[in-house]
Every structure is written in structure tokens, then in C-alpha cells.
Amino acid sequence: MDGQNSKSTTIDDKMSCQPLSHHNTRNLLDSVDAFLFDCDGVIWKGDALIDGVPETLEKLRSMGKKLIFVTNNSTKSRKQYAKKFLSLGISVSEDEIFSSSFAAAMYLKVNQFPKEKKVYVIGEEGIGEELELAGFTSLGGPEDGKKTVHLKPNYLFEHDKNVGAVVVGLDQYINFYKLQYGTLCIRENPGCLFIATNRDAVGHLTDQQEWPGAGCMVAAICGTTQKEPIVVGKPSTFLMDFLLQKFNIPTSRMCMVGDRLDTDILFGQNAGCTTLLVLSGVTNMSDLQDSSNLIRPEYFTNQVSDIIRLL
Amino acid sequence: MDGQNSKSTTIDDKMSCQPLSHHNTRNLLDSVDAFLFDCDGVIWKGDALIDGVPETLEKLRSMGKKLIFVTNNSTKSRKQYAKKFLSLGISVSEDEIFSSSFAAAMYLKVNQFPKEKKVYVIGEEGIGEELELAGFTSLGGPEDGKKTVHLKPNYLFEHDKNVGAVVVGLDQYINFYKLQYGTLCIRENPGCLFIATNRDAVGHLTDQQEWPGAGCMVAAICGTTQKEPIVVGKPSTFLMDFLLQKFNIPTSRMCMVGDRLDTDILFGQNAGCTTLLVLSGVTNMSDLQDSSNLIRPEYFTNQVSDIIRLL
């Protein structure tokens, strides 16, 4: 995190954090070829679309801007996300979606994880689906959600010695069985990787309140294994490096739009993107202005539709 | 932990770590009025008594030594531990047992936790029993072990606003419901305490292997709340301060006997006790001699019965 801290301090020093206005929106659009959008709190909140999003995306596309959707939520695959977009009346191709479930699969692919090894999943459907699409064999996940442990003398909990990576993401069905399985793989299988989709403490799983995020399950495995994970979602730079290889656009010509300072905005800043905070999600004006907050976006505004409204 | 680190460094500097021998065992017995024993890995392993323990305890009692049993395992109450001792053929009174479940209840009592407030438990039977014996009202624990969450739009997870403390210990029945309940209390109830019985990463829940310890569940709650707990079990000094008030023996006349360097031995050292590591539990000779290990007991030996055998 040292690099991140020094980076955010530098940015904090040199940048004023400006509200989006008629004047600077034009500058923003002129200086940027691609918009990276976080989803929850930016495009939708729970199952409800945020006002004015479809028109804004359409307008940006008509201006020739590339749109990329980057989400730390690992519970869905890219295919499932494309369906969710469609159900909300927005047409987005799978290729435009970068979820942390996909990032986990891509991390293994980029690092030539052997196809004969297996991946144990603490998480929901999205991770297993993406692993399978990338050609990997996974176990655990939803299948282990109802498994229980009955401790008795001489009981030995067996685990697959061919597991070479444990991927941990948000898991509503977390249980002692999965915690023991993942821990045994990491502690006992030589060289077994410990990959976290992300470390968000909480997330808006419902509109009404926040719920434990992947950071909860990841911390639990850190607690038993006393090891730190490789994080592939925001704010780690893995996903950005991957995006850079895929699209031919320099990060200086990208704008990261998000509702979280410590993941979205930090992610954008770490990569050298322009950053725009929207106040339609978890961060409010007083969080942004709080003296303890060192992460300052270049721009902030109420919601994404302001980009078009202010033009 | 600063104090603990500086203390262990001092001890490390001035002490050689001696194997127990005929000569120094006599010195040890002469210099000590009370023995504090860890249980798992010292007295028993899972459900099996370790060789020679009953005779050793009997002999020490006949020499006028006070015996105190200190365990970080919070799943049982003191009453349940006394039963376990009896089932293994050892007669121990409840007053001689100090479990981290009891420590949690005593922490609240010593700090005058209001009786009209409630305690939410992530843990097993022992914690609720000790809280009740101390006059507190608890909820959660085993009762919430089968509860599930069904996320749907507009769903609001309700929690009791009268919860003033969340106690987290080892919980084989950990689930998303409990994680959300505990998190909401800590994040939303003003002044709500976050108490950890202990932070052991793993423990020998069965003879055959290690399982996630309280450190797993505690870390999960740290992950969502982004807060650090008050730890009442070993190696925190709360339990020792409590013991000191109860027994009229200076810590310099006590010997802590345990199988874990980072809890038992550190706990003894933090308090100024003589320390004896037994190799009948989780620590082996190479762990002790590893250059990365900074925690060195004054004495070490294979098992507690050596104390009498070497005399």
C-alpha cells in the first residue's frame, strides 16, 4: 500500500476537488476517450436504475466514447451482469464488463495457472462461472453452502491436494466447512495461491442497508491462515493492467467514475486516470470533505446524468 | 502490542531457554507457588488425556501448589470444563478454571456493563452460559446458528438497538446472519463494545488436525466493521489482572505452562510469570528454535509429567 499512499498524497497536494460544471464538463469530455464506470451506486442501487443513466450512456457512446463497466461485486459473472443491464433497459456487451469474478479468472490465466490444478471457491456463482469459461476446474462455492461439519474424535476433514488456488469473494453462504476447506488448502497445499476478488468491508446488497462485503470473508481466511491475499479487484492495479492490454487507450485518456473513495477513486488514481466521484452511492459530501479523508477525486457530482445535463 | 513486544524482547535478551532438567526442576518448584496451565495440548489433546497428567497434578497439589487452568477455548463454560476434567478422571473445581468465555463475562462485570443492556454473541454455548451466570442478558449464539438471510428488494435486516456489546469467540456455526447482526450492532448502536474472547488463528478441535479458531470469526468482524476488538483471553493481560485480584500470589511466584508461544508463553511473560513450554501441543522443537521466533520461554519440556519425573 506504500505506493498507493504516496500517490494519493501527491494527488491530494496538486489537485483541487472540483464540482462538475458546464465549463469543466466540456474539458473532461475533450480530455477523455473512455469512461470506466463502477456499477453499484453509479449505474444502479440494488435493483433500481439511477435516474438518467441510459440516456447518459447513449449520449457518451454517440460521442465516440468507449464505455467500460468495472465492478468489485464477484457474485455474478460477466454474462449475468449483461443480463442485469438488459433487464434495466441498457444494452451492454459482455466485453465491456469487468467484474472481480472475471478478474480472478484472468489473474490465473495471465499467470499461467496449470489447467490440471483446481481452484477452491469461497464465494457465489459468478466466480465459478468465470473460472469455467477461462478453462479452469473449480470446486466449493454454492455447492458447499449447505455442508456442515460434525466434529467427533478421530475425525479427519479431507481436502483435495490438487487445489492450487483459493479464490475468496463475497459469500452469503459462508460457513465453517468452507472456512476449514480454504484454510487447509492454503496452509497445506504447497504453493497454493490465496486470491481475494476484493476487500470491500460492506456493500449495498439491498437498497435499505449495507451488508458484510468480500472484505469480511477475506479477513476470516487471513485470520486463520495468517497470510495476506493477492487482491485482483479495485483498488489493485491488476485489473487496470489487464484493461490496458485489452484496449488501446492510455490511462491518461480514461476517466474512472465511482461512488467509493477507497476503491473506485483510489483505483483510478493508482492508474493515472482522471477521476469523478458521484454522490449517488455510499459516499456523501461530508465523507468527501472530512479532514481524515486523503483520497480526493479530480471532479465530483451528484450522479452520472450530470455529465450530459451540464453540457 | 507495543508493550508486549518490548517485554518479549527484553526477556529474549536476558534469558536462555532451558530444557527442564533434574537440577532446574527443583529450582522451578522452589520458586513458584502457583501453576497456570493451558488445557488443550497441555492437559488433553481433543478428547484424550495427555500421559501422566493426573499424577502430576496430584503431586503438585500435595506439595501445596495452587493450580489454575486457563483456556482460550470459549465454547464451554467453567461448569462444562469441570465436567470435562471429571470425565477424564481429574477433579478440578470451577473456581480453578478460567476460560475466555468466563473472561468475557468478567470483563463486562468489572467494567460495570449496564444490566439493562444486552450482549450479542457470535460463539457457542459457553459464552451465553457465563454471561447469564454473571447476570447479563445475551442473544445470538447457538440460537442464531440455523438462521438464514433471504435478500430481496426493500428488505431491512432489523437488530436490537439495546445491544451494548458484541462478544465474538470460536463459532462452528458462523453464518451470514450472525455476521450482519454483529456488524450492525457495532456500527450502529452508539458505544457498542466489540469484545473478542481471543484471537487464536487455529485450534485442535479434533486430535487429527487444526481448525479455524476464534481469530477467524474475530477477523471477519474486524473486516466488516473496520474496528479492532478488546481481547480478554490470552495473551491480553485482562485475565491475569483478574487472577491477581482473586488469588493473593504475586506473578513472580507463578509459572505459566502452555503449548503456544504467541498466547500462553507471551501471556505469562506479559504478566511477569515464569514460563514453561510443553511440546505436547501445537509447538514443536523447530518452531521454538526458528530464527523468526522472538518468544522464548524460560523452560521447555516434552510434557507436564516431566515436572515430576525429573524431580
UniProtKB/TrEMBL annotation, chains A, B:
GO terms for molecular function: metal ion binding; phosphoglycolate phosphatase activity. GO terms for cellular component: chloroplast. Its cofactor is Mg(2+). It catalyses: 2-phosphoglycolate + H2O = glycolate + phosphate. Its EC number is 3.1.3.18. It is found in: Plastid, Chloroplast. InterPro entries: HAD-like_sf (IPR036412), HAD-SF_hydro_IIA (IPR006357), HAD_sf (IPR023214), PGP_euk (IPR006349). Divalent metal ions. Mg(2+) is the most effective. The active site is at D38, D40. Keywords: Acetylation, Chloroplast, Hydrolase, Magnesium, Metal-binding, Phosphoprotein, Photorespiration, Plastid, Transit peptide. It is an enzyme of class 3 (hydrolase). GO terms for biological process: photorespiration. Substrate binds at K234. Mg(2+) binds at D38, D40, D259. PANTHER family: 4-NITROPHENYLPHOSPHATASE-RELATED, PHOSPHOGLYCOLATE PHOSPHATASE 2. Photorespiratory enzyme that dephosphorylates the 2-phosphoglycolate produced by the RuBisCO oxygenation reaction. Belongs to the HAD-like hydrolase superfamily. CbbY/CbbZ/Gph/YieH family. This is Phosphoglycolate phosphatase. It comes from Buddleja alternifolia.
